[in-house]
Amino acid sequence: MTSQTSVKTLLILGASGDLTGRLLLPGLARLVAKGRAGDLTLVGAGSDAWTPDQWQTRVHEAFAAAAETADPAGRKELTAVEKATVYHQLDVTAEGALASLLAGLEGPTAIYFALPPRISQLACESLRPEQVPAGTRLVMEKPFGSSEESARSLNRTLAALVPEDHIHRVDHFLGKATVLNILGLRFANNFLEPVWNREHVAKVEIIFDEDLALEGRARYYDRAGALRDMIQSHLLQIMALVAMEPPATIGERDLRDAVATVLRASSITAPYAKSTRRARYTAGSIEGRKVPDYAKEDGVDPDLGTETLAEVRVDINNWRWQGVPFILRSGKALGVKRKEAVITFLPVPHLPAGFTGVDSPNQLRIGFGPDTLQFDVDVNGPGSIFSLSRVTLDAELSASELLPYGEVLEGVLSGDPLLSVRGDTAEDCWRIIEPVLKAWQRGTVPLEEYDAGSSGPAGWSGPAPAE
Ligand code: NDP
Fold it and tell me: In a mutational test of the pocket of ligand 1, which residue from 98, 115, 220 has the highest number of ligand atoms less than 8 Å from its CB?
């Protein structure tokens, strides 16, 4: 797939940061190597007094892996971007600093705010509308605000600078492959739509269980926790794709309208002790790797009571989904890594007498990384002709040739906000989880514990892991 590139300069603020080195530059490298970044100039900026060589070396190191597997044309493109890249030292919060850097760049420019959230906000507030050339794109990282009100205020700041369709609120889970798998499955197959509703679906689970523990990210994670880090953003977005109404097109406007509509109908119902659970891992081991107690990890303040595992039941209050629980769950340091949406169907209304063996509901599982599709059905098994047995129809879906951040950047560079979160949706995701955050702060939901490497506290819902 080729894309129409409209951005000439990609300005990364936060050149020395973790996101830039670990995710952005490698993602960009794949895009450049595939010839999908157009005639792009890369500019890095940060508050460090780096020499141009230091920045170029950072870019070179990140591009090296892509160069190894690229064809000659791709390697040439990578070298061209590396050679032309420049670095600017600036404090982005200083009055006029970002504006004068922007004025010297060849536009249209995409400004990637790979900065701490507070600094991104100050940088945006430092700009006046007339200092932002037409065509400029603003790329905002998560978390987008820290509450519905702060997200609204940030939206107002951005809206004064550029039009909404020039704002890219990044959610890298909305990488094309995953999104297109859900949308293609739902809307290009006639057999699913008639059963995709409360008449046939018992529950939907969206699970993102990691076997990784804190991995040195206490500074960020201890103030975020699983609910803010994963459910507020990524899992609600996936839920919206599973639950939304069929759009007329998969263009930016129709798709994002459909996402917004279903999120507006969604809420978590009190009492939260019934609809939510939270827990924190204690010491344990994962595949022979010792994991310390979360509360004793470097940089963790145990008194914050940060959860490393969160589960919420979202209700979607519309005709299609009324009464169907959407269980969203994500946690760290779990024994089994699971990234999937599981749709569990209702049992058949009547199983003819005489059948024996398995009689369990059908399940459709959409796996995210690796991208898979599995459908559990009961059929006549071996042995007695009326003895049922469970089989799984299993398909491995082709992976995207880009990394998730390559897909994010392709949308930015081609001027397509389809895979980014629209402003009203960003606010709504906070509206959905804010009451839970407040209830948890008040201590109305106990903080449970689980051993690192286990499957979480006993009694939590969730289907058995996929084979
Ligand atoms: P880091 O702390 O690693 O990097 C922040 C960068 O901001 C540094 O390069 C720093 O430069 C720069 N910076 C800070 N203050 C200023 C300033 N006043 N002027 C200019 N530059 C400044 O953060 P991350 O890279 O981890 O995160 C960046 C953003 O990405 C955050 O919003 C985060 O939530 C988000 N994110 C990060 C992920 C990750 O895995 N790291 C994953 C998903 C989202 P210097 O050191 O020179 O001051």
Answer: 115
Give the C-alpha separation, 70 to 222, whole Å. 39
At 112 the three-state DSSP class reads strand
Residue with tokens 């990140």: 62
Cα–Cα distance, 332 to 225 (Å, whole number): 10
**DSSP letter, residue 169:** E
In sign, the C-alpha dihedral spanning 131, 137, 140, 146 is: positive
Rounded to whole angstroms, the Cα distance separating 63 from 363 reads 41
141 touches ligand 1 (CB under 6 Å): yes
Looking at the DSSP assignment, which residues form a beta bridge with residue 349?
A: none
Encode pLDDT of 313-359 as tens digits: 999 999 999 999 999 999 999 999 999 999 999 999 999 998 988 77
Cα 328 to ligand 1 centre (Å): 28
CA-closest residue to ligand 1 atom 14: 115
Rounded to whole angstroms, the Cα distance separating 234 from 357 reads 39
Q: Ligand 1 pocket, 17 CB below 6 A?
A: yes
In order, the DSSP letters of 217-281 are -HHHHHHHHHIIIIIIIIIHHHHHHHHSPPPS-SSHHHHHHHHHHHHHTEE-PSPHHHHEEEEEE
Token output for 421: 């979160």
- For residue 115 and ligand 1, the question of a CB distance below 6 A is answered with yes
Give the C-alpha separation, 105 to 41, whole Å. Answer: 9
Question: For residue 464, what pLDDT band results from cuts at 50, 70 and 90?
Answer: very low
pLDDT confidence of residue 3? 42
Does residue 389 contact residue 381 with C-beta atoms inside 8 Å? yes
Ligand 1 atom closest to Cα of 219? 2
> 247 in ligand 1 pocket by Cβ < 6 Å?
no
Active site residue 200: no
User: What DSSP string runs through 401-430?
Assistant: SS-HHHHHHHHHHTT-GGGB--HHHHHHHH
406 CB near ligand 1 (under 6 Å): no
Backbone φ and ψ of 387, nearest 5°: -90, 125
Closest Cα to atom 15 of ligand 1: 119
Asked if the interface predicted TM-score (ipTM) of this complex is over 0.90, the answer is yes
Q: What is the spatial distance between Cα 280 and Cα 272, in angstroms, rounded to a whole number?
A: 18
Domains with residue ranges and CATH for the chain: 9-169 (3.40.50.720), 176-401+423-451 (3.30.360.10)
| The predicted structure's pLDDT at residue 374 | 96
Q: Decide whether any atom of ligand 1 lies within 6 Å of the 124 Cβ.
A: no
N-term to C-term CA, the chain: 33
Residue with CA nearest ligand 1 atom 43: 142
> What's the number of CA atoms in the CB half-sphere (13 Å) around residue 23?
15
The per-residue pLDDT for 260 is 98
